[in-house]
Write a structure and sequence with these properties.
mainly alpha, two-stranded antiparallel ribbon, 10 helices
Length: 195
């Protein structure tokens, strides 16, 4: 799934270059992003054949090209996915009900307000009112400062992010210093511990 407010115009070339043999959803209105509480890409959510989440959103790299700022390798996550594919519900990486409940927490009110501000900003931008969208993009970022999707999308639609936001995406990443850009996935085996 591509999380791109610019829709097929922005995501299309990347999808065409990848030449996937599966369906790609372009989440132009960030609906899935909001419903699942996504704050960065790439993110993986494990959903079983019955439609039940068995692992909530977590970073999901398919290779090590971003290791320099993620500070971890992709292999452990990919091996966990392979284990799940091979063993299904018996995989040690499928979370117990108790662990799943612990990790799936309700969104705080600030995040819900941030989503509303971001939605309004997107609407204004698509309606041709880019300048009017900027204060709402800023407010969404203020309310949810760790949401990199808000930053990435807002800066993408600005002809001058430095002027509009006082920063750029690269500068925001640079401010992290040694702090990882992504929290590494918690792959400690937890299956059946409470059953």
């Amino acid at each position: 799934m591509a999380q791109d407010t610019g829709g097929a115009r922005d995501a299309g070339p990347w999808i065409a270059k990848a030449n996937p043999d599966f369906t790609v959803l372009i989440d132009q209105d960030q609906v899935v992003t909001r419903l699942y509480g996504l704050v960065n890409v790439p993110t993986g959510i494990w959903i079983n054949e019955q439609g039940k989440i068995v692992r909530p959103p977590e970073v999901a790299f398919s290779d090590d090209r971003f290791e320099s700022f993620s500070h971890f390798k992709s292999a452990p996550y990919l091996n966990a996915v392979r284990d799940w594919v091979a063993k299904g519900e018996q995989s040690e990486f499928v979370l117990s009900e108790a662990e799943l409940r612990k990790r799936l927490t309700p969104e705080p009110p600030e995040r819900l307000e941030a989503d509303a501000e971001f939605t309004l900003a997107e609407y204004l931008y698509h309606a041709g009112h880019g300048e009017a969208a900027v204060p709402h993009f800023k407010e969404a970022q203020r309310l949810a400062p760790d949401n990199w999707n808000y930053k990435r999308q807002a800066y993408l639609f600005s002809t001058n992010p430095e002027r509009d936001y006082g920063t750029t995406f690269a500068k925001e990443v640079g401010k992290l210093g040694d702090k990882p850009y992504y929290p590494s996935p918690n792959l400690a085996p937890t299956k059946k511990q409470n059953q």
